Fold this sequence. Notes:
CATH superfamily of the largest domain: TolB, N-terminal domain
Radius of gyration: 30 Å
Structural class: alpha+beta
Low-confidence stretches: 1-9, 116-145, 168-179
Number of strands: 14
CATH topology of the largest domain: Rossmann fold
Shape: elongated
Distance between the termini: 91 Å
Number of helices: 18
CATH architecture of the largest domain: 3-Layer(aba) Sandwich
Amino acid sequence: MATESPERSRVVRFGTFEADLATRELRKSGVRIKLHGQPFELLAMLLERPGEAVPREELRQRLWSTDTFVDFDAGVNTAINRLREALGDSAESPRFIETLPRRGYRFIAPVEAESSAQPVSHGDPAEPSVSEAPQSAAPVTTRIHRSRIKTLEAGLALVVALIIVLSWLSVRERLLGHPNPPHVSSLAVLPLANLSGDSGQDFFADGMTEALITDLGKISALRVISRTSVVQYKGTKKPLPEIARELNVDALVEGTVLRSGNHLRITANLLQASPEKHLWAESYESDVGDVLALQGRVAQAIASEIQVKLTPEEQKLLGNAGPVDPQAHDDYLKGRYFCDKDTRVGGDKGIQYFELAIKEAPSDPLGYAGLANCYAMLSWGGDIFVGDLSPAEMMPKTRDAASHALQLDGHLAEAHTSLAAVEMILNWNWAGAEREFKRAIELNPSYSVAHVLYAHYLTAVGRPDESVAEAKRALEQDPLSEFTMDFTDCLP
Length: 492
């Protein structure tokens, strides 16, 4: 009878764990731990090549067949998270599995492998042969016994030392908090990738990117780069540390959006720029109607991971989103998509979509806020006509839309900024304009448009030093935007 291959029945030990690659079982100190399916397959791949980088592409080929349609990034992140949970490991301070950003993973703990299969004699099993002399068996058995005792003693010493260290770390963390929190005071959200396979859904992925930037921008302890600067990295192959240097940020958020019918999944990854380190990854799912709440959850999770303290108002802003009408929200995002092009054709299409969104959901403030912003930005340029409206005729429409948005939700920084522009340009109401600018910046300290227009206001009222300071803040938040650079170049 053929014997079982020792390779197939190999047992691999690391720390207090042992993985049986034949039975697909994971045990800790002899106790079986529930881990199966893709998380165990991923562990097996890493254990086969300890200390080596295992590329994400190899994981994809091993875990999913070529004809399987799946959100691979979300799948592997979920498998890694489940595996780390089983091992009591973490991405921040890995003991077993190290994340190599945008490359793959590496098993970093010492590994001891042995075969659980024993050689089987092909002779008569009833009697030993002459060569199997009893007197030679005792010394061999003794040596094996002594070796196992030494191994057991070393293992027990290691366990005791590990218990002492973990106990000390636990006490220290309770007393002092997280021992090495990542230093992140500035970040950029790179354009989320559209995984739907339909380029017609690009507007949705772009809208989700901008919405996440807006939510994170509400956190006063963070400097968040504006959409007009990060959009230039859409589809880029630049290394993440290089992007972080160009934007002058501590961390980057990258991820994917997958929409299928009314179902939505967002996968987000947080990466520290220097030293380069993967900090966090998670996937979120919801119906499209709950997209605003989903965005707030992602923003709060990122803030929690980098230990940014939210004010009570910021917690309320990020956790108080209601449902939306999916069709109206789509039309709102299409309006933003076209208005962001800053052309007459784009302005015409954008305003049409905003008006359609308002008609479909008249109680949703976002459509009014988007419409006001589109009118304000186009009229500020002074030479773009929308339909039959001159720039001067757009300002009253800006006022009406912004006022309606703020009646529905007074916490929209964008609407406060649009109203401030009306008070400054149309009404010459300097006190009212400054009040609206300050409220907008209070609600979203990273909203660069508010800083740019406020800088112009400060110049107009004869406060040049404050104007320059405000312009510098705008450039910090939007360093690659032609809009920001053109406007700040005109300042003293």
